[in-house]
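Hi support team,

I submitted a single chain yesterday and got back a structure, but I'm not sure I'm reading the token output correctly. Could someone confirm the output below corresponds to the sequence I sent? I've pasted both exactly as they appear in my results page.

Thanks,
R.
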Amino acid sequence: MDTTNLGLLNLLGQQDGAKEAEGLVMSFIKDRLREGSFADQVIPPSKVTRAELQVSENTDTLIKLIEIEPTARAMKISFNGQPDTQFINGQRVGCGFFTLSTLRQEITEQSLQSYSSPITKQVEQIALKEMVELKDREFLVHNNAAVEGMQEAGNGSAIAFTATAVRDGTVLGVSKLKGDLCLGSETDDFVPYALQKSDMIKIKNLLMRVVRDDNNSIVRVGRLSPAVMLMTKVDLSNVASWTMDQVGSEIAGETTKNGYAGTTLLGLKIITTIKTDILTEGNIYVFTSPEFYGVNYILNEPKFWIHKEANRISWQSWMDIGMCVVNIASVIKLELYSGSVTPGAETTGYQERVPVEEVDMGGVNNKVESGLVFPRARSY
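Hi R., thanks for writing in. Yes, this is the structure output for that exact sequence:
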């Protein structure tokens, strides 16, 4: 048995409470690539204290009040004229806080002794990444709701956002766009097409533009500046298909040799992820800078608790955070597939292009539990 596990058993035998396994170099086969939070790259988190928060009037949830920039107008008057009066009405919104937690893990003292690697330390480090993945999923859920909110404001209700509807002009793209290649699709499905340079230009411009509904009422005021683009590494890899006349000979040559390795694209900071079960292929987002967008708070940093009762050892990790998209017009979504994922107006098969359900997170690539390891030891 590894000395870390033995030391942990000795320590837990002496006293209860929150403990951590000693850090050792791990020697084990990893299942998949685990990344940091892409949400924290879009909007860097800031620390808050309990003193800055208040209790919600409806629940026992803690909230932080966020003040919204007041509006002001100017008007032309004559030398003898007086301006109209505008009363300042400062608006505030409350950002709620919630807990991200791992499941409570358990193992017996006897089973722990059978491991040659520091299993509790491994689980602690993996648990942090699992909580980060859950945070990223919640981040996308919030942003999808913001996008759909703007869409309903412009269309009057939830209308299927398909390539067919866009071509026919029966749906207005307020915070959504379809990629140029998928607009040529004869069927509304969920096969992702390659990102085009023209798609990048359209999604950048939509943040800055005024959009009116069928009644000529303004639903998107515009005058927002794009700053960050979020996509999967798979979607970014398709930039390698851009021709020399689109990107220039130098970039085309480097991309052919090494793939696209830049940190910006058409003036936007690029954030990519391999978490294709959370941010699925064919979904690309563009955000404004944080001061026009929303908030990302950390109330309590990740904690790791471990406890031994009789021969059973339990441990759990958790953290308390708050996230809120305050300005829902500050995010634009580009869909590179022709089907609709609009809630209430989905095209059959839409599950392929939305974040995996929370209960289905944590899946593994390996098939060891099914006995699929080659060659098997008994083959010798």
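A quick pointer for reading it: Residues 3-21+34-68+93-352 form one domain. Let us know if anything else looks off.

Best,
Support desk
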